[in-house]
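User: Quick sanity check before I run a bigger batch. Here is a single chain. Can you write out its predicted 3D structure?
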Amino acid sequence: MQRPIFNKVNQIGMVVKDAEATARRYWDDAGIGPWRFYTIDPVNSSDMKLRGKVIEHSFIAAIASVGDVELELIQPLCGESLYAEHLAQHGEGLHHIEFGVCDFNETMAHFQDKGYKEIQSGRIFDIGTYSYLGTDKGLACITEYGKADEGTVFPPPEKIYPSSK
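Assistant: Done. Predicted structure follows.
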């Protein structure tokens, strides 16, 4: 039997029209939060590609922990992206599951050998890379994999909801 490619669920990502309003509803209705907000754009991210084409886009990411899994709300702001496409074609809802993997490069090679294509990728906050694979036809959802550079940490959020003040 082959060893598992995935070793953990790290994150569930959803595309939304308004990250702040959705985070507020999650907090008020389900007690999920606090939410950490980041604006991701070409100033703090690089090597952004959509289906192999270099792109520039921006979005708001709001992140909260539910146990040891992150819930990410993604609000597209401008430019071409998988997130903007999803919102236009499907509306708000589940976008991806990010899985932990033992070896990022080995996982990418494995799925490419299986015929899955990388659909969006980039480098975020100069701390690591991310990649979305079009596994939605075979695995019923888009999957994401990331690889943080050794010794790096995510920067502090721009804001937190609800604030701890």
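The chain has one domain: 6-149.

User: Great, the batch can go ahead then.
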